[in-house]
What does this fold into?
Amino acid sequence: MPVIPDAIDRHILQVLQRDGRISNVELAKEVGLSPSPCLRRVRLLEEAGIIDRYVAVLDPAKVGAGLTVFARVWFKTQDAEVTLRFGEAVRRFPEVMECYLTTGECDAVLRIVTADLHSYWRFQADHLTRIPSVLSVKTDVPMETLKRSYELPLR
It folds into this structure.
């Protein structure tokens, strides 16, 4: 059964999504609690798995991963074994940042990061299209990023 955070917990989560390195004292001040109950609430959110982990968000271009593409993938067949094996394969590739099984035109959508277009082409040819269940891949290359957020909307 999912834990439903109250308004104070949601406020804590909103602040932590903006700044995961905020001190507990500053967090408590921002959400209107004293430090001890604030820390207790954060610990409970962590234990409940609502806070999954803390990460550093990197600038992709500054670490040699400046190209993001979206690959639409079609499977040869659509059975549980195929999707299981496909998932196992894409989890092994660090270039695949996200992978979603989808309804509609294609069977899966992947967000992939590489250094440049040539690197992506090599990844697609050497890895992605060699997954046994993959029938075809169509790639969309975004021209500009208008929004990139990691904050979930909490209401």
